Amino acid sequence: MNTTIHLSSKLLISMLLLIVASTAIAQSPVVPVINQKQEYVLKSSINGTTYYLSVSLPMHYSKTDTTHYPVLYMLDGGLAFPIAHAARTSLDLLGDLEDLIIVTIEYKWDQSLIPWMTTRWKDYTPSKDEKFDVNPGYLKMFDLLPGAFTSGGGPVFLDVIKKEVIPLIDKQYKTTNDRGISGHSFGGLFAGYCLLTASNLFQRYGINSPSFWWNNKEIFNVEKSLSQTNIALPAKVFMSVGSLEGNSMTPVMSAFADSLRSHNYKGLNLTSHIFEDENHMSVVPAMISRTLRVLYGKNKK
What is the pTM of this model? Predict the structure, then answer.
């Protein structure tokens, strides 16, 4: 009888240990799933343009939990997505970023840069500038005839983002209403335009190498008018430019940042930076990484 009791005790202990081990495994952190990315094609019913969306997901994104994420929309996805996806994957490894979804917006230009340039010229410019539409320098650069460039489609493109792109992403993913937008060059011009006209749609802005020279620097007048009627501009903003980008870019970005600061908007959190020894294109990788860190970096202090 003693032997039976002894064996039963050992069996009971073994079962308890198995239960404890199983519970510990069940409570252990989920193994990270890195390098998650997906793609979508959107044919806009608003302006007829086809957009190619690439999505970079945070390390722990899962369809089965209840966690929702902020979304950063980035323009010029053909250039931006590979850099942004690699940068966020790298920064995620040490927990340097908030968990967020990155969505880039692009056009089809596998065999030629022409459709990229002509379509972004239309979408990213907030007003029509006929002088630059026929600028011989730009036409020659892409071997185009007069009439190839048509500016001023920015307001319509903003409508596409608001009514088609964002609803698609919100339907496919677990998102919050915390949205950001970031762009470079004409994309920076568009992001600046959104800051002044769509602050209810976006809360974070990456305004990089912005073409604020557009249409006789009209964006300065737009900002001045805003300052006369609005005392609040609740937004987190990162503005940047390369030191080698020339007089039409570097001092103009700094002047716009100074103008924003001078009007003391309530809720505006503005960081600006000049990347030393970087030109208009070499600055792209640096400004994408810094945009992520400034707008979504974790405060580890």
Answer: 0.88
